[in-house]
Task: structure prediction
Amino acid sequence: MRLSCLQDNLIKGLGIVGKAAATRTTLPITNNVLLASEQSRLRLTATNLEMAITCWIGAKVEEEGAITVPAKLITEFINTLPNERIDMSLSDYTLELQCGRFEARMSGMDAVDFPPIPNVSGGITTRVDPEMFRAAINQVVFATASEDTRPILTGVHVEADADLLTMAAADGYRLAISTMPLSARVDEKIEFTVPGRALAEFHRLLADQDEDVEISINPGKGQAAFQLKSIQMVSQLLQGTFPNYNQLIPQSYGNRATVNTADFLRATRTASIFARDGSGIVRLQIDPASSEEDESVTGKMAISARSEQVGDNVGEIDARVEGESSKIAFNAKYLVDALSVLRENEVILETTSPSTAGVIRPVGTNTYTHVIMPIHVQW
Result:
């Protein structure tokens, strides 16, 4: 292999694929990144066997070839070089690099031993808008389970039906559901569950993308591919049955409060400071306006937290309240997580009782629903 490319392009490519390289593994070659010449381009690939990311960058190829070298080593070295042309050549299993007055030699491993990257074909293919897909991932991926006690809950369940894509995640304490239109209609309904870690990584790759994302799914092979112009991520799918999450959404409410999203988030973050030493609990008390108050006042929501060791606080925000007064307590982090991903100015909180799940919905769209289980507290 003999080729040359720009330092800036190479460091961007290594940054894209590097997150997929394994860090703890019994297969040492997965600590490496694969460098291979391919039709006047340099192909970079890394995998941890759960997902694989491939990136293509421009290069002047004089001699074809391929090698794998430690991902961390080459990334750190290329990062220190000036933004000039890098010349690469391969001698046996040693990669030689030269950039200006800097040069290095890296011991590599044979490219034929690198795990093959699956070709996801023979299934269903569709397309989605990159910005909408990025927003949808952001709204659900944080709600995946972090522990592997129920592996299926560590993933995001994706359902493509006609011209609609629905993504859902749940960890047993909360549920996030986001919907968006498909750019390419699917003829048959398909469901699959992608590891949350893979989608979180793809969310990073979607920044500044302006072309549709092509999604290819082959449930029989247990694989999905997400294709951008010069980037591809292939992920293994999680096996198992995802819970019927529609049954977890309350169909009625006793109290409905509409509040400013930023005000609600600020008050919750303030309360969470005191909630750290109080089991992470914030208390919400929602009251409609009394008949003695000014007609322009429609109600209020008080967000509070207290700790025996630290103290307590109360924050109050305006609310348009439908129904009777209500009280409910939530995990502060779960509430902050849900409010932080909303871009709408106002949000609705629906509650029924202190022991019934609360539902959060942004005002002005029906594309997002968040359900949080309450915490039982003494009032």
